[in-house]
Amino acid sequence: MRYYKPIEIARELNISTSALRHYESWGVVPAPARGANGYRLYTKVHLAYFRCLRAMFPGFGVGLTCEVLRNIQNADIDAAFWLVNKEQADLQHEKAAADQTLELLQNFDQPHVANKKLKNRMTIGEVAEFAGVATSAIRHWEKEGLITPERDPENGYRLFTPTHVRKILLIRTLRSTVYFLKIMKEIVQAVENQSIEQAKKAAEKAVHSINERNRQQFRGVHRLVELCKVLELMADRELYRD
């Protein structure tokens, strides 16, 4: 059996040998045997684990990657793959939201909502019905500084313009995604400043980031499959045959 020195693996992955020891301490890589001199004896299994870790980090994050590899160590390949599947499904949701945002920005002057008419001044109840969101959500977005409605000088009630409604449609599209958390304020502020082109650029930038993460995830999945092959976890599943 061939053994790998820590420095060999560290050089391949462009990390330090201390990083390898950290991964061991996290419990996401099997503890290696020790030679007579006390040095770690890394095998092709350890190499596959380290390659998988480094490949999955960019697309899936440290926490989920570690959870996946702990399942692999327990030979629970299905639990590991379903974790990966959910993360990819979440990314697909972000992509759909980003595409919808770009579509809204392309037609910003004339938001289309079937069978509903946009008025010059609308109450919070009318806006909520028009956009299909709760009034409490609109108040929360106001509190967060995402929208700033006008006030009726006589009774102090909120009054929303078509621009407010369009921003609420954007927020509604993105509110449940990581993408929303990262760039929502940037897009809304651009709309507030009547810079729709700037808002489009921010959305396009987010789409580019989502596409890159998608590629990173597939690189990580490729290494995960390689690890499972090395561990022979797929031997009786008739998957990925040569």
Radius of gyration: 25 Å
| Rough outline | elongated
What is the number of independent domains? 2
Oligomer: single chain
Structural class: mainly alpha
Q: Helix-strand pattern, N to C?
A: HHEEHHHHEEHHH
- Give the C-level CATH assignment of the largest domain: Mainly Alpha
Provide the β-strand percentage band: under 5%
Query: DSSP helix count?
Result: 9
Find the count of extended strands (DSSP E, 2+ residues).
4
Average pLDDT for all residues: 85
Task: Please explain how this structure is put together.
The chain has 242 residues and is mainly α. The chain has 2 domains: 6-88 and 214-230, Orthogonal Bundle (Multidrug-efflux Transporter Regulator, Chain: A, Domain 2); 92-213, Multidrug-efflux Transporter Regulator, Chain: A, Domain 2 (Orthogonal Bundle). It contains 9 helices and 4 strands, in the order ααββααααββααα. The chain has helices at residues 6-13, 17-25, 44-73, 77-106, 124-131, 135-143, 162-174, 178-192, 196-230, and strands at 33-34, 40-41, 150-151, 158-159. The strands form 2 sheets. A two-stranded antiparallel sheet has the order 1-2. A two-stranded antiparallel ribbon has the order 3-4. Helix 3 packs across helix 9 and helix 7 (162-174) runs antiparallel to helix 8. The longest helix has 35 residues, at 196-230. It is elongated and about 85 Å long. It starts with 5 loop residues before the first helix and ends in a 12-residue tail after the last helix. The mean pLDDT is 85.
